[in-house]
Write a sequence for this structure.
DNA sequence: ATCAACTTGGAACGCACGTTTCAAGTTGAT
DNA sequence: ATCAACTTGAAACGTGCGTTCCAAGTTGAT
């Protein structure tokens, strides 16, 4: 019976996501969000509840559409270390070239910012970290099974270390690091994993 | 002839620094800053010009009193790799225990946040990165001279990699990482540098 | 004692924020 | 054609923001 929405909520969410990603939750005003999504305050609040809820939805959407596919590709790749290399290469390309260059990672930005104060956001960030480490760990197990790794390399610690490295890449890409530098740095780091003890 | 300040500008700057460090530039309102420093709006503006200038001064003070001494200790330490280990241990202790636990690094927070939009801030961040890498590089050269490193380890890339690792530690410490986990992760990472090719 | 130089408290500035409200408009089932 | 259900645009809400202003107070050299 009712009137129906004059816009696509999914597309509005994605546009809002980009604003939050680039500018952060605090700096993304409702005015900017309405301009970016094309819908007005009423529709925005009726659809998403509040700015904070919209941010959370956008963050979850980001993770679902950007992080998770990358994690899955990493974990399911049968090649081992080359999969890790490709993960970093793809990451660096995304961070330093194309429409999102210099935006960093929305999850990493949230970790450093005021967003981090919200318990719900913190929970999402913690889960994201667990999943990232798990994906690295799986890829490292594959690598080990193929004899690509130094024999005494501890997988859990190495996975955690790679996660921190990825955070560093995301962070530094936001403050002007070049793709070239980042690629050489990560490539070398992965090299050290293959050295024999 | 004139009246003299009724407060110590240096101490006010340090109190403001802690507010910016913990909450970021945007979330630190002038009201909170006046409460933290104990001086009122007039004195604050007369002394520091504007909130943005105060932030910049605080950031520079942070780097001068927190980062630089650590960089110097790292670069001047004659022991090589143990100096790097101690650098990370001290960093993790600062980030996870004591009065500043969970605050992360003011510089890293600035990289991910809105502060990063200001060209002057960006310049400070870039210089900080250069100095951090240089300190790592010097320590690695010392380590190499003492035969502590894998022979074919590229120093520049390794230094950059360690810098990214430090960023990751700082970032992750702000979103709840435990000192124990961070220490095991960094300790393992440093182990990989000593493996023979 | 005087006075210029400076600081201080507090009020006020205009503006932008996130959110709410509501009349007018639109929809689709009956 | 009717009507309940819902959306939409625009105005308004109160609050807090960074900043400015000024009268009153304080200082130290003359």
């Amino acid at each position: 019976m009712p009137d129906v929405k004059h816009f696509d909520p999914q597309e509005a969410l994605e546009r809002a996501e980009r604003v939050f990603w680039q500018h952060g939750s605090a700096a993304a005003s409702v005015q900017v969000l309405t301009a970016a999504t094309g819908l007005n305050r009423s529709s925005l609040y009726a659809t998403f509840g509040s700015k904070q809820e919209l941010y959370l939805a956008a963050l979850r959407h980001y993770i679902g559409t950007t992080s998770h596919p990358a994690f899955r590709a990493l974990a399911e790749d049968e090649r081992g270390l080359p999969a890790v290399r490709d993960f970093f290469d793809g990451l660096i390309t995304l961070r330093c070239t194309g429409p999102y260059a210099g935006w960093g990672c929305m999850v990493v930005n949230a970790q450093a910012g005021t967003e981090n104060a919200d318990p719900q956001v913190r929970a999402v960030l913690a889960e994201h970290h667990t999943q990232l480490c798990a994906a690295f760990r799986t890829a490292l197990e594959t690598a080990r099974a193929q004899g690509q790794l130094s024999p005494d390399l501890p997988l859990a610690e190495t996975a955690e270390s790679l996660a921190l490295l990825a955070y560093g890449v995301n962070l530094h890409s936001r403050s002007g690091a070049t793709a070239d530098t980042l690629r050489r740095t990560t490539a070398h780091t992965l090299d050290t994993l293959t050295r024999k003890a």
Summary: The mean pLDDT of chain B is 96. Residues 1-6, 39-43, 46 of chain B lie near DNA strand C (CB under 10 Å from a C1').
